Amino acid sequence: MSPLALLLGLLAAARAQYDPHNDPDRQAMVHLFEWKFSDIADECERFLGPKGYAGVQISPPHECIIGGGRPWWERYQPVSYQLVSRSGSEDEMRDMVARCNAVGVRIYVDVVVNHMTGGGSGSGTGGSHYDTNGEQYPGVPYGHNDFNDNNCHSPDGNIDNYQDANQVRNCRLSGLRDLNQGTDYVRGKIREYLNHLLSLGVAGFRMDAAKHMWPGDLQAIFSSLRVSADPKHRFDLSVNDGRPFIVMEVIDHGGEPIKNTDYTGLGRVTEFHHCDHINRIFRRRDKLAATSNWGTGWGMLPDNQALVFVDNHDNQRDAGGTVITYKESRLYKMAQAFVMAQPYAFPRIMSSYAFDSHDQGPPSDGNGNIVGPTINADGTCGGGWVCEHRWRQIYNMVAFRDAAVGAGVSDWWSNSDQQIAFARKGKAFIAINNQGSDMNQSLQTSLPAGSYCDVISGNKDGSGCTGKTITVGCDGKANISIGGGDEDPMVAIHVNAKL
Description:
Strand 11 (374-375) and strand 12 form a beta hairpin. The chain is globular and about 70 Å long. The chain has helices at residues 4-13, 37-48, 90-102, 165-170, 184-199, 215-222, 272-282, 315-318, 329-341, 392-403; strands spanning 29-32, 55-58, 106-111, 121-123, 129-131, 204-207, 245-248, 268-270, 306-308, 346-351, 374-375, 381-382, 409-414, 419-424, 428-433, 439-444, 450-453, 460-461, 464-465, 469-472, 477-482, 490-494. 21% of the residues lie in helices and 18% in strands. It is built from ten helices and 22 strands. It is of the alpha/beta class.
């Protein structure tokens, strides 16, 4: 690898890919985990666009293994970079991207380029042969010389010690054959794949397992990527010099030599400290009242370098019950409301299917084909899909965040424990009660006088509210009452919810 000085020089020179290329009035994205392309296109048009979502992270679209029982993680074992997966074909993906872009919803692709498969041989979802033991992937093509075997110095070729940065970046993650991104050939194949995706009109990428690749190698790959110049994709090519949005998965809970800050010169990074803090706070292990300086005040990454979330597709399965997920809906809605109300970072909402076991794949038919969600009369999902992004308490908080863009936190209030309230100056106001006892306060909202619909308990519907109505006086104050046992122990109002 390059000497440290050269690596630092590369990072300093990097043109960072921080901007999601989102429309300015759209401030949150959603991960439609394991959705089909045709269903995503429909969802962009009928729901995500109208509700103000900025973009969608899609599951890896490349050819992958066909795992026994069709587990979700088969998507993370590439066979080739052909666009043929359980989500659909390249033509279906192209149609999805065009339809979503047309309604202001960007597409971000989950990209797996750290490794290939983890075992066995056979044919992938596109019919390409692979031989893991022989490290032969003719669908790319990759062969034995394209892997890191000679650079890994662990006894079994796997990552055995996460305190050794060389092992983490050069050895096999859970037996997955580790590509050597330090070679011009491998870099070229990855660039070819990413540029092809960009030519379809995608806005950027989530780089899976970025922690397991050297920052200098990633910079060499990213340096030649540009979003599509096709006018129908509607990108402002002056943003980031036309570079795509990049968010890198770097799992950093502290205590290891590899830090998320190793990658912030290249784009945004998944801020796992944020996830950790959120889960401690809403389980009342830390005080909600201590969040008045949320963000960098809690030791997290700068605002424009972080992507934040309550849970993701990995840790909702793996965290042993510490991570709040859809299975604890009351806590989950509170946590999401807090994240959406804050101006910090760029947030991603998890949209799940129901699962009972770690490996369980998405709802499918007897042939392993994904069966997409049905939409119930109340707008929620059926057919085994959870669709948290369609929960009223969540999509209305996306609208809250959109309405509050550009406004900082003001008029902070707390009871010094588990009740808080704050405004987004002149644009929005939220109060959260995680105390377990009733909250009754007259609080400054910073909003103009009038009647507002509480977007947690209902919607604005013409000249009325389907839920609570909050009255703001001429002094900007409102009487806020939240029961300690309420199913949704928060209220939220904003300028677009004013009657």
